[in-house]
Amino acid sequence: MTTFDEREKEFEARFKHDEELRFKVTARRNRLIGLWAARLMGLDTAAADAYAKTIVATEFEAGGDRRVIGKILADLEEKGQVATESQVRFELDHCAQEAKQQIMKE
Fold first, then answer.
1. At CB < 8 A and 24+ separation, what contacts does 98-103 make?
2. How far apart are CA 92 and CA 30, in angstroms?
3. What CATH number matches the domain at 3-105, 1.10.790.20, 3.40.50.720, 2.40.50.100, 3.30.70.20?
């Protein structure tokens, strides 16, 4: 095997690893923000877990983060809670940092 082939395989392996890590962090981030929103809505533990799962699934629909933020804002409004898009984006960023730390510890 040539040096070029070895480098190509290393690059592909690194890319695969980075994509898996990004996927895990995004899923964990969405779960965490779902739990945050569930607390604001006053949901019990079981309902909060179920709600967090819907937020994780929302990421995979067309729109990605915008869709997640829109769903959370709509759900909060439906429950009579006031939140701005910038508040949700701030919390999303905070959850992303926390999710990355949690994943890196595993």
1. 98/29, 98/32, 99/25, 99/26, 99/28, 99/29, 99/31, 99/32, 100/25, 102/28, 103/21, 103/24, 103/25, 103/28
2. 8
3. 1.10.790.20
Q: How far apart, in Å, do the first and last CA atoms of the chain sit?
A: 34
**For 17-60, what is each residue's pLDDT tens digit?**
999 999 999 999 999 999 999 999 999 999 999 999 999 999 88
- Written as six digits, the tokens of 40 are 């604001």
**CB crowding 30-45: b at 16 or more within 10 Å, else e:** bbbbbbbbbebbebee
Sign of CA dihedral 56, 58, 62, 67: negative
